[in-house]
Amino acid sequence: MPQFAIYVGSLCIGHSWLEHRDAPIGVAAGRFLPAAGYAQVQGAVLASASGTQPEVALRVLAPDGQVLAGEGLVQIVDYSPELGDDAIEVHVIGIEPERYGQWFPTQATGFQDTVVVPPREL
């Protein structure tokens, strides 16, 4: 499973395998493994826990170095002060279908031919 790097500017603040995925809406999430640089932005992440993180311009790089998702589409959810170091996740929203298929092929192919049928009205 590929490991993705999370950056603020040129500073790598951690990694994730983005092991939880929802292909139809282009979302991937996973446990966030902080690097030493995370300490520099953790306060801002915690301060913005109830909303967006505009002052923390996060981006996710795929293993090939290309941007998987950029500013405004990445959020860190950090409950580590209350629950411990294992309670930090990163959420990536709006991954383009081509990129999604490239990095999560088994997830993407499972939804390619899915047809959603609305429920019948009674």
TrEMBL record:
Recorded superkingdom: Bacteria
Protein name: Uncharacterized protein
